[in-house]
Amino acid sequence: MTTTHVSNDVIESFEQLMAKAKSLPTRRMAVVAPYRPEVLESVLQAEREDLAHYFLVGDETIITSVANSNGITLNPSRIIHEPDASSATPRAVAMVRNGEADLLMKGHLHTGAFLKAIMDRENGLRSNDKLLSQAGLYQKPFGKGLLIITDCAINISPDLNDKLKILDNAISMAHKLGWKEPRVAALAALETVNSNMVATMDAALLSKMSDRGQIQGAIVDGPLGLDNAISPEAAIGKNIKSPVAGRADILLVPGISAGNFLHKAIAIFAKVDIAGLALGTKAPIVMTSRSDSMRSKLLSIALGCVMAD
């Protein structure tokens, strides 16, 4: 696994995340298909707060119409007219590759279409030794601090090797946030190993690999259930003795269905702030759900700026 420099600034809240992002040089961000008002509002706010200068890549007619309908004033020189949806993302990716932009942001388009250009072997943003994965940042429900959940959006049914690479990306994010040795919970439906449940087997293997130093920069334990991974009371109630149980900083979900349900349950029922990125690429990719709020999109931009440092 890759060794990442641990930031001296420990970020434990979204307020600290914003403060850290503002302290960094202003980035340049290419935004693909910004056809929703909350996308435009978030990139304009990011510009006002000196996080990132925006470049809007897509159909200029649609972008202008959305802006005018919502009383949003844009800089016309920052709109890059690319009416064909299939060429908008490649154009934005090329801007990042050519050094014209530091970040890429997903606007109002399907995730599959967005990722296709990013994963292009010749012209995309793939990093040869990395696996593209998604990670979300959330406020911890118990105690202070933030929590990373991965992968809720990209890898459908990761095997053990995939999970190692997903963890590598998440641990790198944690180190950028100043978390020296994050505690990782490999989640499953049970906190005991069951040979009929692959998720429990993978979690146990990851735990043992961590014990033997095959996973660097974090402490990994599993299998753990969602409750006893984040709730000290649940961990005590089930008599789980673990350096991670009840105090996890990173949750590794077993597959995309579990991750997607978990993310949307948090977003819809808890209505809390969320930030999300795609990791494992040559540049940070701001990737939020199309239904995420303007605030979540702004926080995701801030997270991308910190990851680009």
UniProtKB/TrEMBL annotation:
InterPro entries in the cross-refs: P_Ac_Bu_trans (IPR012147), Phos_Acetyltrans/Butyryltrans (IPR050500), PTA_PTB (IPR002505)
Keywords, ordered alphabetically: Acyltransferase, Transferase
Keyword Acyltransferase carried by entry: yes
The keyword Nucleotide-binding appears for this protein: no
Pfam families, per the entry: PTA_PTB
Residue span, Phosphate acetyl/butaryl transferase domain: 91-303
Molecular function terms, GO-annotated: acyltransferase activity
PANTHER family per UniProt: PHOSPHATE ACETYLTRANSFERASE (PTHR43356:SF2)
Entry's family note: Belongs to the phosphate acetyltransferase and butyryltransferase family.
UniProt-recorded name of the protein: Phosphate butyryltransferase
